[in-house]
UniProtKB/TrEMBL annotation:
Catalytic activity: O-phospho-L-serine + 2-oxoglutarate = 3-phosphooxypyruvate + L-glutamate
Statement: the UniProt record of this protein carries the keyword Transferase: yes
Gene3D superfamilies to which the protein is assigned, alphabetical: Aspartate Aminotransferase, domain 1 (3.90.1150.10), Type I PLP-dependent aspartate aminotransferase-like (Major domain) (3.40.640.10)
UniProt source species: Prorocentrum cordatum
Broadest EC class assigned to this enzyme: transferase
Domain of life assignment: Eukaryota
Cofactor or coenzyme needed: pyridoxal 5'-phosphate
Keyword Transferase attached: yes
Protein name: phosphoserine transaminase
Domain Aminotransferase class V, residue spans: 5-356
Keywords noted in UniProt: Amino-acid biosynthesis, Aminotransferase, Pyridoxal phosphate, Serine biosynthesis, Transferase
Pathways involved: Amino-acid biosynthesis; L-serine biosynthesis; L-serine from 3-phospho-D-glycerate: step 2/3
EC number(s) from the headed UniProt entry: 2.6.1.52
Amino acid sequence: AEGRIYNFSAGPSQMPLEVLEEVQRELVNYKGTGMSVMEMSHRSKEYMAIAAQAEKDLRDIYGIPGDYKVMFAQGGATLQFSSVPLNMLGSNPKADYIVTGQWSDKASKECKKYGVPNNVCDTKATKYTTIPENSTWKLDKEAAPADVHYCDNETVNGVEFGFCPDVGEVPLVADMSSNFVSRPIDVSKHAYIYAGAQKNLGPAGISIGILHPKFADGSKELKICPTYCSFKTMADNGSMYNTPASFTWYVIGEYLKYTKKVGGVQYWAEQSDKKSGLIYSIIDGSDGFYQCPVDKKCRSRMNVPFTISGGDEALEKKFLDEAKKVKLFTLAGHRSVGGCRASLYNGMPLEGVEKLGEFMKSFLDENR
Ligand code: PMP
């Protein structure tokens, strides 16, 4: 489509053009119903089919065990920070948190409102640039926490787990907001996985939850849990206790259909390795002109943070300005860390990343 740019935003983020064009084709008259999906009752036969198909496709793509629940909730991942303790603590106030970045830190702080979070590690002192060895975490096995929470990919800091945390028998909870559907995962190792849609799977407005049935019966739900946050209420009502974010759910469904067509989550995994590998190799080959502060073993495939010439703000500004001239947008780092950041979600084509690579090389030649 004419005039489109490469958008490296951390989210909401670029989507595959094919998905947008399909949504456009169906926008004003969805499959002869005479109305837009936006205008459709969520209880209508047509809409129920859209919702069910999206769930089925996600189950197929991830190989989600049949007894797990899949939920589509409004409120973003931020509301999930509350929903987790509200539905999983039960009579046990304690929960462990693996704090490896700003988002897991926020999740831990939110838990404090309802229980007693224990940070089994906290890498703030390293400016969230590493993931300590699993064996060094101070997991509170004596206290038998209700769950252990981790953030699989820290969007701001660019830190990603390359392994599934081993926490023994304690229920494992994952925030996968920024690397959802970007590589195969073992769902059965988790009690709960949640992710906002606006990075790898569609527009903002929904967080998807994948829940072990043990936590869907309400037995660990706190009395103060708002009805909207109740996993049991969500699961029992197919995420339609109230009006869901129906249009977002539909677009997620289109993104999932597209995912199946291109080769499933394995395809996104290959693309992600290629795309991130390309940018990291330019950073590492730049003799320190570009620097990524994150430990090599936990560098994110999704969000690549980097500084230029030791954090030269004037030069970084020049980089961002010149990048725009070649259609490369939204490359500034998160406002809390500065520098630059390229987010390479599923919707960012390899071709866009190759353009960024070429630009980084020529900027290096001209400014080193
Ligand atoms: N967790 C992670 C890893 C995120 O990247 C974000 C958003 N950038 C959030 C949680 C919060 O998500 P939301 O804005 O959808 O509430």
